[in-house]
Design goal:
MetI-like fold, about 0% strand
Length: about 400
Amino acid sequence: MSIRRLDIAIWLGLLALAHALLVARVVDPPVNVAFAVVNAYFLLFGALLAQARRAAGRPVALYLAAYVAGYCGLIYLCFIYNPQWQPRFFLYAVPYVTLFRLPLGLTLLAVFIFAMLVGQSWSLQLFVALGAVAVMLHLVRQYRRDWFLVAALGVGALLFAVFLFPVFCLATTDSPQTLMETFGQDGVQRAIATSLLSATAAAAVILVFGVPFAWGLARAQFRGKSLVETLIDVPILIPHSAVGVAYLLLFGEKGAWGTLDLANTFAGLVAVQVFVSAPFLIKTVYGAFDAMGAQYEMTARTLGAPPGAAFVRVALPLGARAILIGFILAWARAVSEVGAVELFAYYPMTAPILIANQVSQRGIDQARPIAVALVLTCLFAFLLLHVARRLATGADRRHEAQAAVLSQSS
């Protein structure tokens, strides 16, 4: 069914009448003219789109209902709730018809309205967070039309976004000029450098002893093995302030081994970071070696490789991805440690200690730029490690293919 000229004339007449009545009541005349143009865009092109959807056998009622709901929400938002948001109405209202062919466009428009109503000064951040969840769910539904899967993923993603949202707001609070000034402060540079260097050193130390230990634990069978596996988790269970006291008792200036005097030294800082971070690497690598099994290594042994060579040339390449993931987890945990470091190795000062110090002495406004600088630095380092993990994943798959070929040839 084609759209008649009489229908168009009636729509335009009703539109003109509505805006004539609207001029003296709510909106200034220039804004009213622009409002009428947008409204005409909705009606005319919306009718054409509805006709195309009807011809394709798609329901039109959804378009009409979404049009009414979205339009009423935008009018309330921009002309009643807060007149200062009128420019945003014209910015986000026009793409409605264009994007309606994709349900994601309508969803993002609804998310934007919700974020503007609820988010207040954090409306843009809320829109980005909720929009990212909406895009993810849309992509999942395109791949697999399972509503239970989408619902479970959506609830989990929304709750996770709620807890992640404060950090996102923190990272987008200060201007680039403020962040550059913060990065330029000597104390901040030293604290961030100390955090990155000590965490890298701690993760490297854990890598040296943790990988062989995890491999040996995965391959060995002995009485009490489950007890050893439980003891690995002890550093996670113990309050880290108690860890600082324990290290002071043994390695402090007046401790049992006071001649070492690791308190307030870089070595002491690395030591407590190793303690709190080691389980993350060991458990990750242990799980990978245990799931991998020993068949590939036994194949290498039957071909004449000694035990050390089988470990280096077979086990390590196959476990490279898990080793790198464990290294990333241990590094991240070491960077964020506060409790044990504050008691045992307050100096050299790390960035988390500097932030806590600034909050207690000068308030949150002084500590916020430092926290943002640390968050951005850690995110940049994490992205680099993530790229390395992707590369390790490709290498891991190649080694698995080579090991499979080797196993078949034997």
